[in-house]
From TrEMBL:
GO terms for molecular function: hydrolase activity. It is found in: Secreted. SUPFAM superfamilies: alpha/beta-Hydrolases (SSF53474). It holds the Pfam family Lip_C. It comes from the Eukaryota. The chain crosses the membrane at residues 12-30. This is Triacylglycerol lipase.
Length: 456
């Protein structure tokens, strides 16, 4: 009887989550369509975004690249809708690439490189063979910043999974992983992480990823991610050109459209036998704690790059510190309130060996509805990278490269994206601070970097 009751609760929770996400997705899509219609027939102009300091601006100022997270989109997708609330419209030195909303961090990093330098996207021969997709992707006839090199580095601002994309890209640059290019880690001048999933998130398990693979399967048979998988497979198979130009999950290199896969290919994909969800070459495996731990094992914090992280949380200790629960109903986006509560209550299965040495459930309870706060501050696992907690950003007036400066702020995961009006003046101040800090750190200072600290 008890198991039936638990099963009924889980099904109800799944249906509620699916409905909430579907409604929000339709809301975003309809908002984009309405905005396009308004601008086409009424000639309406978007309200100018935040004022950006131009005191030091000039032709030699490095560009700033804004990177979206999971289910996100870049400039040109969803019509005139802006993932970053319009901050890119004030300065022609700001770029917002579209990297596919569900593709793996590896594939996004490869896409990002060729978006900037130009050329045909090369996912790598070995990687493409292992994960069963085409080696080459789209062609960028002209790169958006073809002069990118040691002398012309770039500032990056990544939201959610976007922050980890930059870290992987920088490591690839250091490893000279792009054939025909003499790259280095110094091509990245700074990285600002907004609610970045630097160490994974327990949200991935709540939505359906397994903490421990069972019989080669990485997802629960019935979960929110399975619904997402089915919807994505059908969307890509139908392959309606104008619709995919409007929004694209980024799996074109898997050739899953009806033209190439046919009916049998669709069936195989839906059964989980082929495609990104079968091989694991998509974003969610990278966002599990074990996936991030494996990825972080090969990623460095580089001594000549500036790092700053905004860690968000919408939780607090209740009943004299005995419980971590959502702070309030008012400050959290309706879609995220249940998610904040779920993440606060999630516990690592006691029957399994700890996911890393020193893991404690209580460390991972504070969250913003999508990512745990502990994961956002700086890279922590498997080794802790040099970091410094700041209360006021004025403490960063003389930032040192090679150290992760981080600030914890009260906000949910989408507070600083999509809807500028929701965050109000806080939205303006944060982005203004980010862009000012980028401009002030436009010239590299070579310093020594402290050694990483092993996790106790």
């Amino acid at each position: 009887m008890g198991r039936l009751w638990i099963g009924a609760v889980e099904v109800a929770e799944l249906l509620l989550s699916a409905i909430v996400h579907l409604i929000y997705g339709l809301y975003i899509f309809s908002t984009a369509v309405a905005s396009d219609i308004s601008q086409t027939f009424l000639g309406a102009e978007d309200r100018l975004p935040i004022p950006i300091s131009t005191e030091n601006d000039g032709p030699l100022q490095p560009p700033i690249v804004l990177l979206h997270g999971i289910f996100g989109f870049g400039k040109g997708r969803l019509g005139g809708l802006s993932y970053f609330g319009g901050v890119e419209k004030k300065d022609d030195r700001i770029l917002v690439p579209d990297l596919g909303s569900l593709t793996s961090i590896h594939d996004r990093a490869r896409d990002l490189f060729y978006y900037l330098k130009g050329g045909r996207v090369d996912y790598g021969q070995e990687h493409s063979r292992i994960y069963g997709h085409g080696r080459f992707g789209r062609v960028y006839t002209t790169g958006h910043y073809p002069e990118w090199d040691d002398l012309h580095p770039i500032h990056f601002v990544g939201h959610s999974a976007g922050a980890q994309v930059v870290r992987v890209l920088q490591q690839m640059l250091s490893d000279k992983a792009f054939e025909g290019f003499d790259s280095s880690e110094n091509w990245v001048l700074s990285l600002t992480s907004l609610s970045g999933a630097l160490n994974g998130t327990t949200r991935s398990y709540i939505d359906g990823m397994l903490v421990e693979e069972l019989e080669g399967k990485s997802m629960k048979p019935v979960c929110l991610l399975q619904l997402c998988r089915i919807g994505t497979v059908i969307y890509d198979w139908v392959d309606i050109k104008w619709l995919k130009n409007y929004y694209n999950f980024g799996f074109d290199h898997f050739e899953g459209s009806w033209r190439k896969a046919g009916i049998l290919g669709l069936v195989d994909s839906l059964l989980g036998n082929i495609g990104p969800f079968a091989t694991g070459d998509w974003i969610l495996p990278d966002l599990t704690i074990q996936g991030s731990l494996q990825m972080n094992s090969n990623l460095k914090t580089f001594k000549n790059t500036y790092y700053f992280s905004y860690a968000t949380k919408m939780t607090g200790n209740w009943l004299r510190g005995g419980y971590t629960l959502p702070l309030s109903l008012c400050g959290i986006h309706p879609m995220l309130f249940i998610r904040v509560l779920q993440m606060s209550l999630w516990r690592y299965p006691q029957r399994l060996h700890p996911i890393y040495k020193g893991y404690r459930d209580e460390d991972w309870q504070d969250n913003d509805g999508a990512v745990n706060t502990i994961s956002m501050t700086h890279p922590r696992i498997p080794i802790e990278h040099p970091s410094r907690f700041v209360v006021d950003e004025l403490q960063c007036a003389n930032m040192k490269p090679g150290v992760w400066y981080y600030k914890i702020i009260e906000a949910d995961h989408i507070f600083y994206i999509l809807n500028r009006d929701r965050a109000g003046v806080m939205f303006d101040r944060m982005y203004e601070g980010i862009f000012d800090r980028c401009r002030k750190n436009s010239f590299r200072l070579i310093t020594a970097i402290p050694s990483p600290i092993p996790i106790a």
